[in-house]
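Below is our example:
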Amino acid sequence: MKPSTKIFSGARVAAFILVTAFLLKACKQPSNDTSEKEEWITLFDGSNMNQWTPKFAGYKLGENYKNRFQVKDSLLSVRYAKKDTFKEDFGHLYYNKKFSYYRLKAVYRFVGDQQTNGPGWAFRNNGLMLHCQDPKTLGLDQDFPISLELQLLGGDGEHERTNANLCTPGTNVVLGDTLFTPHCINSTSKTYPGDQWVEVEALVLGDSLIQHILEDKVVMEYRNPTIGGGNVGGYQEAVYEEGKPVKEGYISIQAETHPIDFKSIELLNLCGCMDKEAKNYKSYYVKADNTTCVY
């Protein structure tokens, strides 16, 4: 009988441990840890452009020239009237807050016909302008902001045309180990023809790394942007500080002669409180700004 008694006792002990573990798990309070929950900022909420400011070459800041930037049917759109003819009046729409370390996502599509007399290169062409200079410092006739352009391009259905390219109005960048001073360079992406919806993303880490991403694939990567290189006109001389690092800035979209719709534009700030004792600590932050900590 002793052997079976030992087995029975062992089984009771094991059962007790399992039941105790189950009860402890069942009684455990839900975790209040939200440090890993991503808090995306909706830059465009589908209803208005209240957080955005337009600027067209030749016109004062805040004037939405010919109502080219519009919100309709929950879309942020660029539109041109049938009799509206291009006269070097490029436009940009600036979000009213600047950022330095972040992820940016946008869903867009090209639609309709290009504006009359629009340049050939601007066919199905727009851009997410990153690290833009403060729009208040733009010259009246300035065509493009000093910035880094994640260039949005659509194909014509016949020719190959890469997307999420890089253009550098008023800036230079380092590609690999080489300073890149020309204006634009193609990405490694496929062509996106027609009026399809496309999701594009940028990863921006100050001046240390910028990536352009399509379908979870990095198609362009560069670093160490600085002011220089030309390819921008009408700027104020005091703003164009040759060689100055470009570490932060505003975000804008373009009115560059082809109609476009944005379904969503959202941003995940990667700069914030990195004190684990704070209520607003986030594990995904990569740049500390502990002045924002809440205890």
About this structure: The chain is about 10% helix and 35% strand. The chain has a mean pLDDT of 91. The first strand starts at residue 41 and ends at 44.
